[in-house]
């Protein structure tokens, strides 16, 4: 849609698709006013800094847990970058050194050092480095607030509005009242920024990089934020406004149809049923998943139950949550993943030593083997959910057949012990593994003979296949699940699972993406598990797909050499089907 020549039109970069129509509101965080003071007790300033870091960590972990339960666990991982900065010894050694050398208050030292690092990031040619400057600014402001130097000034008007800002820090964005948000228009930033990722998770339109002209847009002006076109229109003429309102109404109607149809099974045009399940972390998400049409839970993450506390949750506490979720599902299948935690997410009661490469260290099943009673207590809680409920247990970070055999033995032993004591248990407990490590994908045919089901976690499989730490901003952009190497590992896993007689599903981010659904169906995956909000659209996409067509798409995608080629091909295929 082309605006008239008299319409103020700002062009940026699409960050989260959709259209928002509403009044403008400039969000202007309170300015920093840090006064530099000469101090006598420098050691006392260093103590204040340590206290502020500990308080900031507690705030961030609480915020991460909040985002995981109200948005999704994937979006909560954004705050891992903040925690990495907060724990960076070089960064804070520099702050302490500045404080000592200048004999100044720690607030002034923080501003000087953090702004210096931020300038280096912003000067980089790499967009991912520039995007991380926001995270550094967020940590700086959080520390200054903790030290008493700044207060947040981010109140919204009563009516829903389109938020305009020079930039928006992730922790500010996620804590805004969602009922008053229509979309985001930012002067700076890029599509890989954490605010852009949050906007997509929240389902809000967002355009970034709109430039300095955004400051001239008056509060209250009528805006059309066309995120798909990367465009912001200010006070457009009535005919343009009406045309966009029609588009919004059509989109709303399409979403309503998707939501209504989501109650029914998803079958391809040639009659193949694809099961669509939900990934979740909490009881509230389980209720939302059913409302969105989930046919069960393909991945219940249990980490939140174990974090932000001084002791591990007891067996009865775990049982209560698992049983509540099973009751909400009302006979639908529930796959519970055991604790996937390690050196990158330390908890005080485990006393794990720091690891240089926590993604390659003691996490998942490796932690279970080093802390067997922790794992046995979780498996006991799962068995005790009781008869008549279709519950399965799934183990993360499995790398060998030896581990699979040990896990099957542990599950059988725990069940036998409970029955000997007369404790009511599940009628049966199917055992499955996450396929996240390339070694397991390449042994899928052997693994499938030892388990009841396998679930491909495309996020970690991509990380390990491409040697990319997805929490490292400098390289995370390389980690593309559409990389042909990752697709070939998925295809090999599907073939192996079928050869060995195990059920196969995908529960990583690719399962819910518009390009991923036809590709995975074509590769032979018959169960997809995703964030609840993605389920209605995924089911509609399946119904519009022919299995024969999907197989041809997958076969050609496997023949391509780069992720960009795969993405371009899948986008062309999607347009040809629409």
Give start-end ranges of low-pLDDT stretches.
none
How many DSSP E strands?
17
The structural class is alpha/beta
DSSP strand content: 5-15%
Question: Quick one: biggest sheet?
Answer: 9 strands, mixed
Q: What CATH architecture of the largest domain do you see? A: Alpha-Beta Barrel
Principal-axes shape call: globular
Number of helices: 23
| Percent helix range | 40-55%
From the alpha-carbon coordinates, what is the Rg to the nearest angstrom? 25 Å
Average pLDDT works out at: 88
What is the total domain count?
A: 3
- At the first level of CATH, what is the class of the largest domain? Alpha Beta
CATH structural fold name of the largest domain: TIM Barrel
> What is the end-to-end distance?
19 Å
General description of the model:
Strand 4 (161-165), helix 7 (170-174) and strand 5 (181-186) form a beta-alpha-beta unit. Helices cover 48% and strands 14% of the residues. Helix 4 packs across helix 5 (106-122) and helix 14 packs across helix 15. The longest helix is centred in the N-terminal third of the chain and has 29 residues, at 42-70. It has 23 helices and 17 strands. It has three domains: 8-26 and 158-256, Glucose Oxidase, domain 1; 42-146, PtsI, HPr-binding domain (Enzyme I, Chain A, domain 2); 262-577, Phosphoenolpyruvate-binding domains (TIM Barrel), CATH 3.20.20. The protein has helices spanning 42-70, 73-76, 78-86, 89-102, 106-122, 127-146, 170-174, 194-202, 238-261, 283-291, 303-306, 315-329, 365-370, 372-383, 401-420, 438-442, 444-448, 458-465, 484-500, 516-523, 535-543, 547-559, 563-577; strands at residues 8-11, 13-16, 19-26, 161-165, 181-186, 206-208, 222-226, 231-234, 266-267, 273-280, 297-300, 334-337, 391-395, 430-435, 453-456, 503-506, 527-530. The chain starts with 7 loop residues before the first strand and ends with a helix. With 578 residues, it is of the alpha/beta class. Strands 9, 10, 11, 12, 13, 14, 15, 16 and 17 form a nine-stranded mixed β-sheet that branches. An eight-stranded mixed β-sheet has the order 1-8-7-3-4-5-6-2.
